Amino acid sequence: MKIRFASPLPAIALAVAFAAAPASAQVSLAGVWGWINQEDSPDRGAGPELGDYGGIPINAADRDRALAWSASLIALPEYQCRVHPSDYASSFNNFRMWQEIDKESQTVIAVHMHHFAWSTERTIWMDGRPHPPDYAPHTSMGFSTGVWEGDTLKVTTTHLKEGWIRRNGIARSDMAKVVERFTRHGDGLTWTLIIYDPIYLTEPFIRNRDFTLTTNIATPAYPCESVVETVHEKGYIPHYLPGTNEDVKEYAVAHGIPFEAAMGGPETMYPEYREKVKGMPKPPPNAKPVKPGR
Questions:
Q1: If I label 150, which of 28, 93, 247, 287 is the partner at 20 to 30 A Cα–Cα?
Q2: Domain of 168: which CATH number?
């Protein structure tokens, strides 16, 4: 009697196919990620102080724009429901992530994010598609593509509407490109953000934020309905004309920081700037803010 053995070729071919298939993800980022409010609390909460631009490589145009900005702007009905852009939304409370998986190939097509803030949602495409041409519409979430760098998800976003770097007047233009990296450490997640803005920044701006995986917190709805908080004449936009913003020195006075140092710029990003600050005049304690240039 002859004994026949099944051919090993199908099994070998299957093993080779699995080995050759590219890994669509090294770790799972799915879940609800909770904010850590004591980290960068001003930006994650009520907002940073007026006139606090230090450590940001802004140019003169962005500084002038910030000096003209009024916090009363966000009270206008047209601005009350204006969403945080994707490069800022994750700073504000929790967000949820999940994967979209192709049924046939079981590869990850996209990673989705739902932000608590204004219930915005963004899609990070993982299927290798290109970014749209320059003339394509810009949105608050932009167009994002992702690739894995080991266990880190690298995300590149273009086609963003104009937004902000800090909620005290520091703007980010609609020409910016944003690169993010999501790195998971067990139940922790580090979000690293790099903004390349040829209009308002002289150098890339880098920000890190940390989050904790939560199992008992959901991301509820965030309904927003604008109302008239203060009656203004039609077309009124809160602002300051050049040299008239008397509030801009409050931060420097309150913390004893030279006004020039508080105004930001590429120099203020580096440790060497501390020596220069030592030789700058500081505002006297409890001094009243004065108009810039006086």
A1: 93
A2: 2.40.128
Would residue 190 count as lying in a domain? yes
Domain count for the chain: 1
Cα–Cα distance, 139 to 86 (Å, whole number) = 9
The residue assigned the tokens 């799972």 is 28
CA atoms 212, 53, 75, 73: torsion sign: negative
pLDDT at 219: 84
In this prediction, residues 158-167 reach a mean pLDDT of 96
This prediction's pTM:
0.87
Cβ atoms 168, 47 nearer than 8 A: yes
Domain span at residue 205?
A: 31-41+81-214
Q: Where are the alpha helices (DSSP H) in 49-208?
A: 60-68, 77-80, 86-89
Q: Which residues contact 137 (CB under 8 A, 6 or more apart)?
A: 159
* Mean pLDDT of the residues in the chain: 89
Question: Does residue 241 form part of some domain?
Answer: no
C-alpha to C-alpha distance for 291 and 289, rounded to whole angstroms? 7
pLDDT for residue 121 is more than 60: yes
* Whole-angstrom distance, CA of residue 226 vs CA of residue 101: 37
Q: pLDDT-based confidence at 232, cuts 50/70/90? A: confident
User: Are 176 and 160 within 8 A, CB to CB?
Assistant: yes
Cα–Cα distance, 202 to 58 (Å, whole number): 6
In a domain, 101, yes or no: yes
Closest CA to 60 of 165, 208, 199, 180: 199
53 domain residue, yes or no: no
**Across the chain, how many H-helices and E-strands are there?**
8, 11
